[in-house]
Structure formats: structure tokens, C-alpha cells
Amino acid sequence: MIPSKAFAQVILLALSSLCLTAQAKDLLAVGTSFSQIFELQPNGEYTGLGVDILNRFAQQQSVNIHYQITPWRRAISMVERGQADILIGPYDTPEREANLAFATKAFYRDNMVFYARVGHEIVWNGDYASIKGQRIGKMQGWSYGPTFNEQTKSFNINEFVDIKSGIERLSRGDLDLLATNSRNTDAVLAQIKIPKAIAPITPIIDVQDGYMAFPKQAKFDPLRQRFDRFFEDMIQNGTFTTLGQKYRVTLPY
Q: Keyword Signal, does the record have it (predicted)?
């Protein structure tokens, strides 16, 4: 029979071993291509503020993080099902909180805006009644805030899987407005040629903060908690501010 003190030591050693094993596994982080947040370069390298944060987290935790860019809804589904460990960059919504565990703090901030063709008169003063008859495009799976969702329920909305398609349709005159964010849209505009210039109009639709999110299952809680502690340290020691400046991303803090 093992003495109680010796038995306790055996249990502690076993638990320590389990913790080390859990931390030593490979992790999969997924998302869709978000300019300055999560991007795949031609040389096969993943870059962006989200990647830089997670690479530093992996180094501190002595784990390996693999990355995968997929269509946005698939990425969300993979994390909801526990097929991936981390979702990079989702906006926090009550609907998503039902199936995802969000990090305590966001790591970037976006202004959601309408883009319109330059020279095309659009009356938008923040009152959705003023644009009810307009042909509006938005991105599939994106969150634009509760006011937008409620006010546009009866609107003529076209959804796009990628921003490039929405931009091209707006530029050709197939849409009157495109609801998107400046960060992603300006990055795509810098890479393509369109027949008619487009530009954001004011006022903004809403402000959305982007987070890291994790599977809701309890077995992923330690990973999320370790990330929260790590990220709080980044904020306090100034590393996070430096990274935000490097990637030219608006930070929530």
C-alpha cells in the first residue's frame, strides 16, 4: 500500500506529465484571408498580426501551430466541432458565443462602412430608411452589428464569398452600396483594376472588434486560459502596441 504522501506525489507527477503532453501537441489555427491579420504569401509563409501573436504564444508554450486558410464559414465550423484549435479574427456576436469560446480581449478593431461608386449620389446619414431602395452587397458570414442586421432584414441584399467579387460588382454598377470594412477592402483595391473608382462613405455602420476564438468544449478551456494570460502580458509589456504599429492595424486598447 502506497503511503498517502507518496501517493500524492505520484498523482502530482502523473498530472504534470499529462499537462506537458497536452501542451506539447500540435495546434491548428484556421481562418479566412484577412488583410494584415491572417494572410498566405506567395512563398507559402503565413503572415499578419494574428499569426505573429500566435507564433509568439507557440514559442512561449513550446507547442507547434499549423495554419490553414479556408472559406470563412468552414473555418468557423471546424472550430465549433473541435476539428481546429483556434479561429483567427472573428467578431464577437451572441450567436457565435453559443458555439465558440472567445478570448477575453480582442486584438484588432475594424470600422464597418459602406463603399459607393465615386460620383454616384447616395444619401446615407445613418438612417437605414434613406437607403432602403438601394441594391446592397455584403460579405457572407460577416457580422455588421445588431443595428445593421435588424434594419436590413427586408432589404435587397446580395452576399459575396470574397471582397473582390463585391468590389467588382459595385464598380460595374450592379450594386449601389457594398457593406464591408476599410482594412480588407483597401488591401484588395490596391491589387486590382476596376472600371469605376469606389470609396467609403460616412457615417460608419458600426465598430467591430476581432478576437481569437476556441472550441466551446471543456477540454479546450486550458488552451484558451493560457492564451488569455499570454495576451494580457503582451498588452502590459508593450509588445502588442509595437505589433499593431508594425502591421498598421487599429488596436482596441
A: yes
